[in-house]
Predict the 3D structure of the following.
Amino acid sequence: VERAKQTGLPTVADDSGLEVDALDGRPGVHSARYGGPGAEDRERVELLLREMEGKHQRSARFVSVIAFCPSPRSSEVITVRGECEGAIAFRPSGDQGFGYDPIFLLPDGQTMAELSMAEKNTVSHRAKAFQKILPYLQNFIDSQ
């Protein structure tokens, strides 16, 4: 709502993160900053794997939340949530994607980093969230 008011325009925003059950949902919304300022993807993955050492519970999910504020003159905000369930692998695998993709195991046994971009776009948390927000965006466009 604040950004819509600042710009005077309809606004879409999103945030996403990795929730790991054995770590009480961490890193969550702090996924991009996990490991401190300046930490790179490889360092964040290594930190997460160290924290998972000895843990048998490895379930996790990527989560994306998208918010749409259609009018800067209103406090109306539509939010949707997309999730991709999986588990944390014991070691990285694959060279596609970014972030935690090399250690995020999908139910079929592949990591996100082993999928092509087209495959990832059918199962990812962001894809699921965007599919949910799309009707609201289309309705907004049609009403203009």
In short: Residues 125-142 form the longest helix (18 residues).
